[in-house]
Amino acid sequence: MAKVAHLTSVHSPLDVRIFHKECRSLVRGGHEVTIVAPHTGDEIESGVHIKAVPPIPCSQKRLTRMTRTVWNVLRQALRLNADIYHFHDPELIPVGIYLAAIGKKVIYDIHEDVPCDILSKEYIPKWLRVPIASLAKILEIVGAICVSALVTVTPNIAERFKRYNSSTVIVYNFPLLNELSSVSGDWHQREMSVAYLGGILVERGIREMVHAMALLPDKLQASLELARDDFPEGLYEEISAHLGWARVSDWGTVDRTAVASILNRVRAGLVLFHPEPNNISAMPHKFFEYMSASIPVIASDFPLWREIIDGAKCGLLVNPLDPRSIAASIEYVLTHPEEAEAMGRRGRAAVEQFYNWEAQERILLNLYANLLDPAAAVVALPSQRNL
Q: Could you tell me if residue 185 is left (phi over 0), alpha (psi between -120 and 50 degrees) or otherwise beta?
């Protein structure tokens, strides 16, 4: 058994990937696990210890988080004196480098292609994006060289880092197989609605979703179920003033039980990321959650996503920048219930066969075993291949 600390200055301690997947898997693997994260207080949940650092008010969020919160995370990390530290945010790279320098085993969990993501950040002036992205790339390379191992979420990210750290693995962000397995019932009893779960950003298609809802025929009485993180400053006022907002049920931030409830009543899930560099090769969690919940996926027509959807025959592909294309696909799913239900069943079957967390859990536990005792680790599993 190892003493493990997961560190985040950005995410909730109950984040799906960090808490529900990785940390709970490590507890099942026999490790003592603590999450250091912004939270209202210390607690223990499902065997995982949560060590809180003060949350930052939204008005101060970005700069204060990258300074005060990072410092607080480091202080708590040092107090824990863990055997392995596993951090999740690029702003914690200096923390990871410091922990490695004092002899700790450190894992950097890379959730996205950070330099590419910076290039599409609207809050950064365009003339600053390339210099900041270049600095972020250099920082990540230094961090990758210094830490013990890297966990990535896509083959593209893994390929970029393997040259700097040979202990690089892919742990796909696939859904927990049994979490949404109870989602069932008569398809015809479902509401005439579709869902979007997750982060709200312009480049994730919130404008086009709402605009598409305004284009649907009135007779459908269609709605969009929205379960989401906070809107960026000023965006809520713009989006909520649009005609399509009248067809949105905005649930705000919800827990996992509410997620299951939403997916149990809708007829499709939306993943309409814009064709930005970081998005084209992404494998977002919500994509596979919709499949796991046995509903069709309406997704951006990216090559990787086309491969998954065409392979499983589990959804429709659209131009994410064209609200009319999105509206047409939503209308098709709502007015062709037998085909929509069949797509959902095929998506669920693909999750059961390929796209589930259970196989990824073994990869994660094997990485930890290798760091603690290389002689005890098993051979890398077939799940490491490009899916």
A: left
CA atoms of 96 and 289, how far apart (whole Å): 31
In the block, which residue shows the tokens 């490695």?
100
Q: Going edge to edge, which strands form the sheet with 315-318?
A: 248-252, 223-228, 193-198, 269-271, 297-300, 315-318
Q: How far is CA 179 from CA 12, 183, 219, in A?
A: 19, 9, 34
Q: Express each pLDDT in 142-174 by its tens digit.
A: 999 999 999 999 999 999 999 999 999 999 999
Domain boundaries 187-353, CATH class: alpha beta
Q: Give the global pTM.
A: 0.88
Domain range summary for the chain, segments of one domain joined by + = 3-174+356-384, 187-353
| Residue 160 zone, left/alpha/beta (φ > 0; ψ -120 to 50; rest) | alpha
The tokens for 173 are 């962000």
How far is it, in rounded angstroms, from Cα 116 to Cα 289?
A: 25
Asked if 178 and 357 touch (Cβ cutoff 8 Å), the reply is no
Instruction: Let me know if the fold of 3-174+356-384 is the same as that of 187-353.
Output: yes
| The residue type at 183 | V
Tens digits of residue pLDDT in 113-133: 999 888 888 778 889 999 999
Closest CA to 291 of 344, 329, 334, 336: 344
CATH of domain 3-174+356-384: 3.40.50.2000
- Alpha helices in the chain, H assignment, sequence order: 24-28, 61-64, 70-80, 93-101, 114-118, 126-146, 155-161, 206-215, 235-240, 256-265, 277-280, 285-292, 303-312, 323-335, 337-353, 357-372
